[in-house]
Request: fold
Amino acid sequence: MKSISKNQINEIIINKSKFITLIYPIKSKEDISNILKDIKETYKDATHYCYGYILDNIEKCDDNGEPSGTAGMPILKVLKYNNLTDILCVVVRYFGGIKLGAGGLIRAYSNSTSEILNKCEIKEIKEGYKIKIILPYDNIKQIDYILKNININKTYDKNVIYKFNIEKSKWENIEKEILKYSNLESKKPVKLV
Reply:
């Protein structure tokens, strides 16, 4: 599966209607509600807020007042066709006075979504772990050497606490070496983009 690395925005005009497309990487349903709330506040006078999202294996779309199946489903289909996950795409429409018809709406929402994806950096999602290890100060040098290419959050207390994300295959290659010099506090599966 794939996802995007950062938010993106794009705007197109079709027969005087303005379609503002916003796309976001997401991690939870809470992200979705917060983003939708923010969009509705930012674009208060818009006619429609149509969206599609894929989060893990959950898919949902909403036509938000457009004829059934003409907005949310076309957005969702483009996301699925591109093998994306953990993603929310919202198309904000300002009606321009000319009706597009069902076919026109489907094309407009599909094109809006495809066009914004062309602007996005799409990355492969890899399985990984969120690791927390505890080590004595004497072992910092060894652990730093093993983890030299990893971004680490370090906390210094009675012992040293390292927190970092790492790809599953990389962790499997260094796990025994790390555990010689530290104690594994926690190991949680995460998706890495």
